[in-house]
Amino acid sequence: MEDTRAGIVGVTLFVIACASAYYLRNADVLLGHFDLGWHLAAGDLIRQMGQVPQHDPWSFTAGNTHWFNLSWLWDVLASWIYQQAQFGGLVILTVVFGTAIAGCLLFITMRAGASVLASGVAALCACLLYPAFSGFPNIYLAASPNMATMLGCVIFFGVCLKPSRALLALPLVMLAWANLHGGFPLGLFLIGFFAAGALARRDWRAVGLYVATGLGCLAATLVNPLGWHIYQGVAGTLGNSAAAQITEWMSYFYNFHFPGSVPGLCYILLFAFVELRYRAPCRAEARILAWLFLLAGLYQFRYLAFFFLFSTIPMALWLDRPDHELRRAAGLVAERAPGRAAATGLTK
Question: How many CB atoms lie within 10 A of CB 250?
């Protein structure tokens, strides 16, 4: 049965409702992110000063070291929401980001050719697994700037999958992303990754679109209070020796918790089995991204959330496989039926 508009709307509402209920059920964990108080204080300070401070006023060891606040805009937004609606407002903000991610995943998987039902199942699995509530405080959907990177990655992933003029709107997304969270280089990586795929296929039109978009996004990252020094701040975060003591930078095996991590592990094993045994017919870039972030997530837990998001397309198309086989079999029967009828003298 072909997907109808009513079916698409129904599945979309169901997925968003289930994901929202799940996030609200874990509201105390969403607000328990260890950095939330610091971000609220930073937002209060920026609003009071009317500018982003150059030095951290709460550090006893930083001295005159330059403070690279890579999430200043999220801090200001969270500070204002907390002033207006307290913690309830922050929970609503988090759920809004989560539902936006769910809706984007549904659109992406259906656009890739999966049925609405398979898309709904795959998107819901991703939305239930990527927050990693069992790996507290490594929560990738919480009242923290991380939510901007999760949504930004999904938007870039969906737009880059099928190159069109919509790519030229991504610099506007990057303009917000670069001021909300320091994870914005992932957007540049995705553009470069898909550009390499287009180059390998010698799709010169797509290459041109990716290059133009990449240059626009690169320019957009410089529109921030830090200017080009924003990359200095990102490099300082990625290369900081303290990362070895932070759990989200450690391996998946260090962050494994029983039984909370079991559903995620089962999904990983199912994905590996499906990919190695059946290989759903999807774009090579989607498959490679899923595998790349799975391996990166096993090495550093912080990347595993992206695996759940990027794996929705191959998983949705695999879920559609039995349905496609039934359709193919029904078509063969329909083609052969007239021949059998003629041979048995049943036709008029």
Answer: 17
| Residue 125 region by backbone torsions, left for phi larger than 0, else alpha for psi between -120 and 50, else beta | alpha
Whole-angstrom distance, CA of residue 2 vs CA of residue 12:
16
Contact 129, 267 (CB under 8 A): yes
pTM exceeds 0.85, yes or no: yes
Contacts of 119-123 with C-beta under 8 Å, sequence gap 24+, read 119/11, 119/312, 119/316, 120/11, 120/12, 120/14, 120/15, 121/316, 121/319, 122/311, 122/312, 122/313, 122/315, 122/316, 122/319, 123/15, 123/312, 123/316
CA distances 271 to 54, 201, 231, 266, 268, Å, are: 46, 26, 35, 9, 5
Can you tell me the distance from the alpha carbon of 116 to that of 121, in angstroms, rounded to the nearest whole number?
Answer: 9
Number of Cβ within 10 Å of residue 246's Cβ equals 14
- Contact (Cβ atoms closer than 8 angstroms) between residue 41 and residue 78: no
Write the pLDDT tens digit of every residue in 5-48.
888 899 999 999 999 999 999 998 889 888 899 999 999 999 99
Q: Who contacts 22 (Cβ-Cβ below 8 Å, separation ≥6)? A: 127, 128
Q: Read out DSSP for 140-175?
A: SSSSSTHHHHHHHHHHHHHHHHS-SGGGGGHHHHHH
Taking CA atoms, 70 is separated from 184, 221, 224, in Å, by 10, 11, 9
